[in-house]
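[Solved] Which block belongs to which protein?

Original post:
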Amino acid sequence: MNNYENLINTVLDNRYKITGIKGIGGMAVVYEAEDLVARRKVAIKMLKDDAKEDAEAVRRFMNESKAVAMLSHPNIVHIFDVSVKENGKSQYIAMELIDGITLKEYIVKKGRLSWKAAISYAGKILNALNQAHSRGIIHRDVKPQNAMLLKNGNLKLIDFGITKMQNSEPLTMTDKAIGTVHYISPEQASGAENITNISDIYSVGVLLYEMTTGELPFVGNTAIQVAMMQINDAPKDPRFINPEIPKGLAQIILKAMQKDPSDRYQSAAEMMKELKIVYTNPAAVFQSENKKKGSNLPVAVVAGGPQRNAKSLETFGGKKNSAIEISAAAGDKTDEEKVRQRGRSSQKNPVKRRNSKSMLPLILGAALAFFIVLLWSTIQLVGGYLDLVEEDDQDEKTIVIDDYVKRIFGDELKAEMAALRLSVGQVTYVANDKFEKGEIIAHKPTAKERKKYANDKATIPIDFTVSTGKDTYLVEDLTIMECRNAGIYLETTKKLTVKIEYEPHDMVANGYIIYTEPGFGSLMEAGDTIILHASSGMPVKKTKMPDLVGKSESDARTILQREEIQIDKVVSEYSDDYRQGIIINQSIMSSREVPRKSTKVILTVSLGPRYPAQPKQPEKSEEPE
């Protein structure tokens, strides 16, 4: 049995009975325990023996744990109690016991996650960080080992053990806890003092990289080697490892992992916003930082750049001309066939020659007819040539738009359009039950409409309306909303069925949402049911009404104060059974369960007997006669 197991069956502060070891980390040990007062299972986190000897580590651990205890969020582990007594066994954190696996274990099991699942989990982590950062709390150790996946699909961020409060004293590389080297930011790796919330953004970028590729961006033989790579090396584009990652998501990952904190997202909310854009529209890409410093706003999707268009034209070049040549050849063949048929016809019906004594009239007539036919043919030939030239010139400068409705909007269609000098204009995505996801609902210019090119190199843009399939909704962070307003919003605008369930909560205000099922980042369809778990306020604590009859008024007041029961009023009555000042009756019978603080009881106090007993007169003795 090791030192940590010695605490099993120990009761801390007459409340937490330790029943087993949940896990052992670098700085702390987590025990499974039973809360004897609240009658629930909890996790108890205590510093390891070597860390307890470091007074500075103990001070920071307890101070920051108090700060985290102020947080109440569905994606952050809930802390019930913090003990800061000097006795080593009494320095601990009591928190909710989570039944699940770490995100790291899940990644190892799956190899890599789908990009949609990765965005969903990252969204939950960013949601938690957004709450912590708003309170001035920096996690500093965001990694998949510190994200727990629950059986209901929710995710909770844990282990704020090396948390730093903004504007507090700096933590350096000499501290025992600096975060896991594979996920820390360059400024953490270099031991900089100006660690801000943006360092957590870098760690989320690394986490997204690992979830979508199955690989860490930087791997070395030693921790120092990895730390130097975090400081100096640029990560490989994740799409080189997994081409299925949307380009917009790769842009988000690489921006979050910029070496300079000012080049990253400046808040968790900003990064969450762009992740949501890619989640709902995988084709979305973001403006280059070189074009507009500090901006990463989504722009309309276009069919490749100049390089891609050139390649597409080379690949598909000549298709239109080839089609014209085939059509012309087919026409010539048809005309030749007609001539041959006429020739065979004339051979079957030969005209009998008439005898003539003189051939001169016939020769003159034939010559005249020949010249007339020749003149007519010349006129027709020249006119036809001019019409053909005009028609060819018209074909080169105009195009008849094809019908793209019901076609899949993708790379194949864009390449086909590029070969015809057509480009993608504005793309609008809308939900539509009659069209599958990705199918084109409408386009402008419309089918069979003739459009003219502006010049020899110009393209004609086409605007598309593309279906996203059935109406969907990406669950937002609703924890800051009042449940009735949120319900109206979800029912009227998102077409969801809303169910509200109330439960007591000691941190969330009455009527406000604690968490939702399904949680933030989940994709729902119109008609689905979402459950809003709302706070009904502080949990009602109850006690049993004590038996006060026969006790003095002062003793009764002391007992009621201890049980948090109020005295409504005190009345007095005469009593032959109880002396003055003794409780003879109470408005609520004893042993009845009543709520603390709100219960009021009426006490009846004895005034003593109404008619005090008259002292007996001594009997008079008879005098002798």
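(Second protein starts here: sequence line, then its structure tokens.)
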Amino acid sequence: MSNLLNENETTAVKILKDNLIYDYQGLVNGINDGEIEMQEWLDNFDYEILIQSAEQEFNKAYKNGYLTNNMNGTTLEIKHINFSGKDKKKLIFETAAALAFVKLDNDWKTGNLFF
């Protein structure tokens, strides 16, 4: 049995997941700074929005050729996964979104997101 995702695709999932978490943590900072309301954060904390955000980030990276992790600087040359097929890319986006959603939800429940 082969893996669902190859090494580059797995790296893309990790980068997209970290970047989604990074973006949502940025919104938390916006709440703390009074720039956005808590309700805006809650309205945007949605699995489907996370999937869309992952896809948008991937497409933006495709334009410049590289997908870069905003937390640790890990970079992946996007051409290594761009031609993996539509279903494979969908799996990458959905997996990254699911992992980010679980992490953010757990952080919310345990008080690790600060408001």
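Accepted answer:
You had them paired correctly. Confirming on the second one: The CA atoms of residues 8 and 103 lie 22 Å apart.
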